UniProtKB/TrEMBL annotation:
CDD domains: BtuF. Residues 37-289 form the Fe/B12 periplasmic-binding domain. Keywords: Signal. InterPro entries: ABC_Transporter_SBP (IPR050902), ABC_transptr_periplasmic_BD (IPR002491), Vit_B12_bind_prot (IPR054828). Residues 1-17 form the signal peptide. This is Cobalamin-binding protein. One of its GO terms (biological process) is cellular response to iron ion. The keyword RNA-binding does not apply. Pfam families: Peripla_BP_2. It comes from the Bacteria.
Length: 289
């Protein structure tokens, strides 16, 4: 994978005129030159773009684009699920980076009809995150920086894989929302992090990517560890609700673990931070047996 990323950057940087990459919808996105005015349409994409070394080229972002600190200062063009089309057009972007599963399809179609260049992002694997960083870097003319960030991310993921590939499994419940109670299936990136750490997702076989579940299903599944985010980066109050269910193994052993949601729920290089924390937590669960 690293070799492929290196070849992509070398190819992109060798061209001083047109820059072309293939996005996550298998569409070829070509620019006459590296982008100078970029608008990002999800908080995660804002973070990816900064990681690719192209933060200085951002002219706007959607609400809740909060990392790094500079992202908070960008002009807003609405939320990820509804944006201000007139504001976008007025900013004269030479590149929009869209979230294919989360942005409103009808608004993206309108922007496409106006002739704006749109790159669609939807990483589902660790390699996809690295590749996204590199492709954004190629489009923005920051390929060398992007390659270094991507390779560092992949190296960290590989280190965790080697460390925990033979670890005894831990049955895990991943809570991504409180009301309604929601989790992830095994196709979700969060579940892939769980597997990386030697965890087994108790709801991995469900059909939906982020299914709603009921309390009784969690109690019946009896997870050994419960991992949750919250409404903020330092708000583990969701876990407090589980303490009254002392029949659950995770509660009996105090295996109730909080991970800041932006480090696990966004497909960015900071996923390595969330993955490292999750792996350490599951190792703690093993030690408490």
């Amino acid at each position: 994978m690293r070799l492929l990323l290196g070849l992509l950057v070398l190819w992109a940087s060798s061209s001083h005129a047109e820059v072309c990459v293939t996005d996550d919808l298998s569409r070829q996105v070509c620019l006459p030159k590296a982008a100078e005015r970029i608008i990002v349409l999800s908080p995660g994409i804002a973070e990816q773009t900064f990681a690719a070394g192209a933060g200085s080229k951002l002219v706007a972002a959607v609400s809740f684009s909060d990392y790094p600190e500079a992202a908070k200062k960008l002009p807003r063009i609405g939320g990820y699920n509804r944006f201000d089309l007139e504001a976008i057009v007025a900013l004269k972007p030479d590149l929009l980076i869209a979230w294919s599963e989360g942005n409103p399809a009808e608004q993206l179609a309108q922007l496409d009809a106006l002739g704006l260049n749109i790159y669609y992002s939807e990483p589902f694997e660790f390699d996809d995150i690295a590749s996204t960083i590199v492709r954004i870097g190629a489009l923005a003319g920051t390929g060398e920086h992007a390659l270094a960030v991507a390779n560092h991310f992949l190296s960290g993921i590989q280190d965790l894989r080697a460390r925990f590939e033979d670890a005894p499994p831990v049955q895990v419940f991943q809570q991504i929302w409180k009301n309604p109670l929601m989790t992830v299936n095994d196709q979700h990136l969060i579940a892939k992090v769980t597997r990386l750490c030697g965890g087994q997702n108790i709801f991995g076989d469900l059909n939906q990517l982020s299914p709603r579940i009921d309390l009784e299903a969690v109690i019946s599944a009896n997870p050994e560890a419960i991992v949750a985010g919250g409404m903020g980066e330092d708000s583990p109050e969701w876990l407090d609700d589980w303490r009254r269910f002392d029949g659950i193994t995770a509660v009996q052993r105090n295996n109730l673990f909080f991970i800041p949601p932006s480090t696990l729920q966004r497909p960015t290089p900071r996923l390595l931070e969330g993955a490292t924390l999750l792996c350490d937590y599951l190792e703690t669960a093993r030690e408490r047996r």
